[in-house]
Design goal:
Elements: E1 12-16, E2 19-23, E3 31-35, H1 49-52, H2 54-57, H3 68-82, H4 86-97, H5 117-122, H6 131-148, H7 153-162, H8 164-170, H9 177-195, E4 200-204, E5 209-213
Antiparallel strand pairs: 1-2, 2-3, 4-5
Helix pairs in contact: 3-6, 4-9, 6-7, 7-8, 7-9
C-alpha cells in the first residue's frame, strides 16, 4: 500500500538506495520505482489460481496494464450493454483504481472497479483481476444501484462505495467523509469528461444527470 492511498500488486521488489523498484512481472521486464517512504505497508497476497496462471489467463498484457484505447473499448461495451454513459464508468474506474487492473484495497476490493469478493461472486465474476470481467461485473452492479435508487446518481455512487445498507440506513448519502468525498469526486470527474464533448454541456447533480445540447 502506498501513502497516496493506492495499492499496487507486484511480483517482487528490490531496494535501490532511497528508492524501491516494484516489478510487475516475474521476469522483471516491467517495473515502477517509488521512494521508500512512499510505501506505507506491504503484505504477501496469494492470488486466485485463475488470476495467477498465465498472467491472469491472458486477460492482461505482460506489464499488467491497459492502453487508454483498450480500457475505453471495454467500458464502451459494458456501457452499451447496460445503457450507461461510458464517461460515468470511466469516472468510477478513475476514482476506484486509477486504471490499475491489479488494484487491491485494504478491505479486499479487487481490480479496476474494486469489486469485493462476495459481490464479484454474486455477479458471476470468476476473476476480478481480469479487466473485462471486472468492468462487466462492476457496470452491472452500478446499473442495479441506479435502478434501485431511481437514477439518483449520488445515492447509487454512495451505495457503490459504502454499500446499499448504509444508504438505506441514513436515507441518503451516509455522513461518512470517505463516501461523501468519493461521490463528489466521481461526479466532478464525470462533469469534466462530459464538458469535453463537443457541443454538449452536461451537468451531473446529486439527484440526476441532466444534459442539454447548445
Amino acid at each position: 500500500m502506498l501513502t497516496n492511498g493506492f495499492d499496487l500488486m507486484c511480483d517482487h521488489r528490490s531496494s535501490l538506495g532511497d528508492k524501491v523498484r516494484l516489478y510487475l512481472d516475474a521476469d522483471g521486464a516491467s517495473f515502477v520505482e517509488v521512494k521508500a517512504e512512499e510505501i506505507a505497508a506491504s503484505e504477501h497476497i496469494d492470488l486466485p489460481a485463475a488470476a495467477a496462471k498465465n498472467q491472469m489467463a491472458g486477460s492482461l498484457r505482460a506489464d499488467g496494464k491497459l492502453t487508454d484505447a483498450e480500457l475505453h473499448e471495454l467500458l464502451s461495451k459494458a456501457g452499451k450493454t447496460h445503457d450507461l454513459d461510458v464517461d460515468l464508468l470511466a469516472s468510477v474506474v478513475r476514482q476506484e483504481s486509477g486504471g490499475n487492473p491489479r488494484a487491491l484495497s485494504r478491505a479486499g476490493a479487487q481490480g479496476l472497479m474494486q469489486l469485493m469478493p462476495g459481490t464479484a461472486a454474486e455477479l458471476g465474476v470468476g476473476n476480478a483481476f481480469a479487466p473485462g470481467e471486472n468492468i462487466s461485473g462492476g457496470t452491472a452492479y452500478l446499473d442495479s444501484l441506479l435502478k434501485r435508487y431511481h437514477d439518483n446518481l449520488a445515492l447509487a455512487l454512495a451505495a457503490y462505495n459504502a454499500g446499499p445498507a448504509a444508504v438505506d440506513r441514513w436515507h441518503g448519502v451516509p455522513p461518512y467523509r470517505e463516501t461523501r468525498v468519493y461521490v463528489a469526486r466521481v461526479i466532478h470527474e464525470f462533469n469534466r469528461r462530459i464538458a469535453l464533448r463537443s457541443g454538449v454541456r452536461t451537468v451531473a447533480t446529486g439527484t440526476q444527470v441532466a444534459s442539454a445540447t447548445h
